[in-house]
């Protein structure tokens, strides 16, 4: 037998980053499982996580730096050495800096717990232009949560283990999954918790719910206004908690007065008695009730307000820092431990303002990638000429890739740093291959939550190709740009030492479990001394922000557009076996779900003469494609649905190339269509025509 080792690390097959244990024999990966030491994980992994083995040993990924030789997107490349590729990039960045200043360089990434590296890197170049992907994900939810509690959505966790009732709005927990959350929810259901699931279609989660309510697309705000109406009118809320911690209850009461369950029935299609029934149930089950903030309400034009109404419902339950409710995340300081040092600490502050400083809603922050696109397109307020996309694929994740190409053509340098051939990579000037999550270590990350901790992703195997870890790529670029003094690192250990200085924790403390817990037990806040990060320190139903910064606290409901004859709202979502647009070419995952199909309501399909399994044509504003129809009664007649992430246009990904359709291609003209308050992209404001293909 050869030499076997066991490495604790973090999965990288999707952005959840579950803790894992990896077994390696003679340098070859043999086994990946969930980290057995982590409660809620205890060995479990999802299908994508297990398919990490296939990902690692797949040759259909970038193997060396590549420099474009033909026009953008032509697929003509030449192999380059790292030195050559980095000189090519930094040569251009220097020219751009001389002409436009360093602020003309932007970096966007997928966000998450390792962003101290990328934020510090862009700061070292003297640019304020760091962006993350959140406009396309949870931005409206995040803003809504902040508007009520002062905390972002990531600062709030859910105590599923002790809950009595979980209410989910298109939060498809059993398919769009996070392993720990799935296990905790299954345990809660076994222990007798109820689950109410609201979606425009019946998903796997619907099949496990006590009650599934099919809702008309885009009308969840109407449902919530009616729920709040009943809860206030019948005094079903937690009065002690609300009186103590909430500002603006009277105003809310006045606002929801017209929004009765009977009114909401007409909007949502959900019977008034069901709406009143849900209000009664949660009124009885409180405070251990969780209205999950989710994501799906985040993708309509009024998502800020519908998401806000979810957080208002939570507050009315009085479920904050209570068993079975919402728990405010605790960090190292709460456990009496110094936080990790930032790599950017000693880098001078950047004087220039982020490019969307004047475009974004002041109270709710800047850093909207959609605004970065606007600036690249117009040069206003100043030109942005270089875009580094690290672990980010906007051409697959933002609407309308054809429109995006026109915008990105204003750039002098577009770089993709990825482990796959991404759609953005395919259109860029240089592709830099990062070593995979199994081949590299990352900077240490902080885990906030009821029990804070530090977690490490640690290299398990040697890189198979000529790739490098992110920390090294950014260190090399900073060095070539003359910012080496701010990125002096020669090894990941040097970075870890720097991060851990003063925390009392050493690198080898991670050896035993991969995670260092900072508290033995959860660290609850005193319910009599809660702290909210709002202006008033309370839960703000009526915002107390200064008038110049504020937004309307209560927005009247506006009924969503009904699609015209033969048209449908295009909804999308995930399968448990794929992550966004990045896993469709994985040999195992491709075998399980090789392409997407379009769900269409049975009665609507009958009208159009479409039968289950027929190929149909889907079109929108000059773009059309063919896809197989799944005819079902389990989707609302106003919508059709397809899985996100298919229809790859990259021939080097031979398994997924041109399999299925790409949802983003139908989102014509939606690149600048955002929720006016939250700023999140309104993907669901997309209508498509579906028709039979005439034989
Ligand atoms: N139409 C439509 N659009 C959507 C969505 C949808 O459902 N429908 N979903 C939205 C949502 S919720 C999100 S979060 C976004 C997600 O879309 P993005 O924010 O673009 O993120 P991902 O697709 O997760 O990953 C981006 C890139 O990171 C690469 N990557 C993965 N692991 C690594 C790594 O270890 N290192 C490096 N360097 N790169 C890596 C992947 O190969 C991929 O190319 O898309 C959004 N856009
Ligand atoms: N397997 C897997 N898991 C993932 C990911 C992945 O790529 N793959 N991505 C992760 C990421 S980044 C995210 S953001 C989350 C997303 O997690 P979710 O938001 O839970 O997932 P989605 O599948 O995007 O969409 C959920 C549902 O919203 C429904 N929906 C559409 N319109 C409406 C509406 O108007 N009202 C209601 N109530 N429902 C509606 C859709 O029919 C769909 O079933 O998943 C995470 N988990
Ligand atoms: S949910 Fe699955 S793919 Fe995502 S990090 Fe966890 S195990 Fe990996
Ligand atoms: Mo997301």
Question: Can you identify the CATH class of the largest domain?
Answer: Alpha Beta
Over all CA atoms, what is the radius of gyration? Answer: 25 Å
Question: What value does the average pLDDT take?
Answer: 96
User: Architecture of the largest domain, CATH level 2?
Assistant: 3-Layer(aba) Sandwich
Q: Could you tell me the CATH topology label of the largest domain.
A: Rossmann fold
* Helix/sheet category: alpha/beta
**Largest pleated sheet:** 7 strands, mixed
- Molecules bound to protein: ligand MGD, iron/sulfur cluster, molybdenum atom
Label the overall shape: globular
Number of strands: 27
The domain tally reads 3
Helix content: 25-40%
Portion of residues in beta strands equals: 15-25%
Low-confidence stretches: none
Order of adjacent strands in the largest pleated sheet: 5-4-17-16-15-6-7
Can you put this structure into words, describing what you see?
The chain is α/β, with parallel strands linked by helices. It has 3 domains: 83-128 and 350-517, Rossmann fold (3-Layer(aba) Sandwich), CATH 3.40.50.740; 140-329 and 532-548, Dimethylsulfoxide Reductase, domain 2 (3-Layer(aba) Sandwich); 567-692, Barwin-like endoglucanases, CATH 2.40.40.20. It is 28% helix and 18% strand. The chain contains 21 helices and 27 strands. It has a 7-stranded mixed beta sheet. A 6-stranded mixed β-barrel has the order 22-26-23-25-24-27. A hairpin with a 5-residue loop joins strand 18 and strand 19 (453-455). Helix 5 (139-149) packs across helix 13. The radius of gyration is 25 Å and the shape is globular. The termini are far apart. 53% of the residues are buried. The model has no long low-confidence stretch (mean pLDDT 96). Iron/sulfur cluster is lined by residues 11, 13-14, 16-18, 45-46, 48-49, 177-179.
């Amino acid at each position: 037998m050869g030499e076997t080792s066991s490495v604790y690390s973090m999965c990288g097959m999707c952005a959840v980053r579950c803790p894992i244990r990896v077994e390696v024999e003679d340098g070859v990966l043999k086994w990946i499982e969930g980290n057995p030491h982590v409660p809620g994980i205890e060995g479990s992994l999802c299908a994508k996580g297990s398919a990490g083995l296939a990902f690692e040993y797949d040759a259909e990924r970038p193997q060396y730096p590549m420099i474009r030789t033909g026009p953008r997107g032509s697929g003509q490349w030449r192999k380059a050495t790292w030195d050559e590729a980095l000189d090519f990039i930094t040569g251009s960045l220097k020219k751009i800096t001389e002409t436009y200043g360093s602020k003309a360089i932007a970096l966007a990434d997928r966000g998450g717990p390792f962003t101290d590296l990328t934020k510090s890197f862009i700061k070292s170049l003297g640019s304020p232009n760091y962006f993350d992907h959140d406009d396309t994900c949870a931005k409206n939810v995040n803003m809504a949560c902040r508007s009520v509690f002062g905390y972002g959505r990531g600062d709030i966790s859910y105590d599923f283990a002790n809950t009595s009732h979980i209410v989910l709005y298109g939060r498809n927990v059993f398919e769009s999954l996070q392993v720990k959350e799935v296990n905790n929810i299954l345990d809660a259901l076994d222990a007798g918790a109820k689950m109410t699931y609201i979606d425009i279609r019946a998903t796997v989660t619907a099949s496990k719910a006590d009650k599934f309510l099919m809702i008309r697309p885009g009308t969840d705000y109407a449902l919530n206004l009616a729920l709040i109406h009943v809860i206030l009118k019948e005094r079903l809320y937690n009065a002690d908690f609300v009186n103590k911690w909430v500002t603006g209850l009277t105003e809310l009461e006045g606002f929801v007065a017209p929004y009765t369950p009977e009114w909401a029935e007409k909007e949502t299609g959900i019977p008034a008695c069901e709406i009143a029934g849900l209000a009664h149930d949660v009124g009885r089950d409180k405070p251990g009730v969780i209205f999950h903030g989710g994501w799906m309400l985040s993708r309509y034009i009024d998502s800020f307000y519908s998401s806000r109404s979810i957080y208002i419902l939570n507050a009315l339950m009085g479920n904050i820092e209570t068993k079975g409710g919402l728990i405010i995340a605790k960090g190292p300081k709460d456990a009496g431990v110094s936080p990790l040092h930032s790599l950017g600490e000693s880098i001078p502050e950047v004087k220039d303002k982020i490019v969307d400083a004047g475009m974004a809603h002041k109270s709710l922050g800047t850093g909207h990638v959609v605004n970065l696109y606007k600036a690249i397109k117009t040069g206003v307020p100043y030109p942005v000429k270089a875009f580094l996309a690290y672990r980010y694929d906007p051409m697959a994740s933002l609407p309308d890739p054809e429109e995006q190409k026109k915008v990105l053509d204003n750039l002098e340098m577009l770089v993709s740093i990825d482990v796959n051939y991404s759609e953005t990579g395919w259109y860029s000037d240089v592709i830099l291959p990062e070593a995979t999550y199994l081949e590299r270590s990352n900077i240490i990350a902080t885990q906030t939550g009821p029990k804070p901790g530090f977690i490490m992703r640690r290299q398990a195997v040697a890189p198979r190709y000529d790739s490098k870890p992110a920390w090294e790529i950014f260190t090399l670029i900073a060095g070539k740009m003359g910012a080496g003094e701010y990125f002096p690192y020669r090894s990941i250990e040097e970075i870890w030492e720097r991060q851990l200085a003063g925390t009392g924790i050493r690198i080898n403390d991670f050896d035993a479990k991969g995670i260092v817990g900072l508290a033995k037990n959860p660290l609850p806040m005193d319910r009599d001394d809660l702290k909210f990060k709002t202006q008033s320190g309370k839960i703000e139903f009526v915002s107390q922000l200064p008038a110049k910064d504020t937004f309307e606290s209560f927005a009247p409901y506006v009924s969503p557009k009904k699609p015209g004859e033969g048209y449908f709202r295009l909804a999308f979502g995930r399968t448990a076996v794929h992550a966004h647009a990045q896993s469709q070419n994985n040999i195992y995952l491709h075998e399980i779900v090789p392409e997407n199909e379009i769900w269409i309501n049975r009665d609507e399909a009958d009208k159009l003469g479409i039968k289950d399994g027929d190929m149909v044509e889907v079109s929108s504003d000059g773009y059309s494609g063919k896809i197989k129809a799944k005819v079902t009664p389990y989707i609302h007649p106003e919508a059709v649905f397809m899985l996100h992430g298919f229809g790859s246009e990259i021939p080097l990904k031979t398994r997924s190339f041109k399999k299925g359709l790409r949802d983003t291609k139908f989102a014509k003209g939606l690149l600048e269509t955002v929720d006016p308050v939250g700023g999140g992209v309104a993907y669901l404001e997309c209508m498509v025509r579906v028709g039979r293909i005439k034989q």
